[in-house]
Amino acid sequence: MLQIIYIDEHLVAxxxxxxxxxxxxxxxxxxxQFALQMLRDQLGRQVWPAHRLDKGxxxxxxxxxxxxxxxxxxxxxxxxxxxxxxxxxxxxxPAESGVIEHPLARDPELPSAGQTMLSARTDWRCLEQxxxxxxxxxxxxxxxxxxxxxxxxxxRRHQIRRHLKHIAHPIIGDTTxxxxxxxxxxxxxxxLNRLWLHGLELRIAHPVSGAxxxxxxxxxxxxxxxxxx
Length: 229
Prior knowledge:
InterPro entries: PsdUridine_synth_cat_dom_sf, PsdUridine_synth_RluA-like_CS, PsdUridine_synth_RsuA/RluA, RluA_PseudoU_synthase. It comes from Roseateles albus. The protein is an alpha+beta fold. It has helices at 35-43, 67-78, 159-166, 180-190, and strands at 3-7, 11-16, 48-49, 58-64, 83-91, 97-100, 104-105, 117-118, 122-132, 143-152, 197-205, 212-216. The strands form two sheets. Strands 1, 2, 3, 4, 5, 6, 9, 10, 11 and 12 form a ten-stranded mixed sheet that branches. The model has no long low-confidence stretch (mean pLDDT 94).
């Protein structure tokens, strides 16, 4: 059963677990479970995804319960009127805060050369510095990581993952844009292998009533592992 964190006659929001696809895709043709199908079966009615999260990303995922609301939600996201907040574990100790305005290729699965470059902006701030007593690549006796909050102001694919890589603080567990040695070391230290990215909050105007709506998907228990020794 998916964790429902909000529902009314027009909308439903869930807290998607890491490792679950939003919908069927040829990129993961072997997968048999999808949030869209599971939620449809759980509610016994049709649902329309308003946005998407990567398979490895956990957190808030919003659906419409009718086609008209789906259309209105689509406009909200396309016009940049949906405000998202994410939590991530990254390599290294970044500065206190920053803004990343680095154009991104439309398709992150293909080489950037020759692709249309799209404007993209992510605001971020460092929440906590972590130092764990293990060495990666033998250069230092300990390894440094940080919890950061990231707020994408645009909605490009893999935007947060690519932007944090761009400033040399890739997300731990990111097998596409991250560092394999750090991914493996942290997974061994914690006894858990996942992409450490979570959609924590979404703020929009309700597409039907216009009332402000603040949705929050709590962090899973595994995030309690991310502490200094």
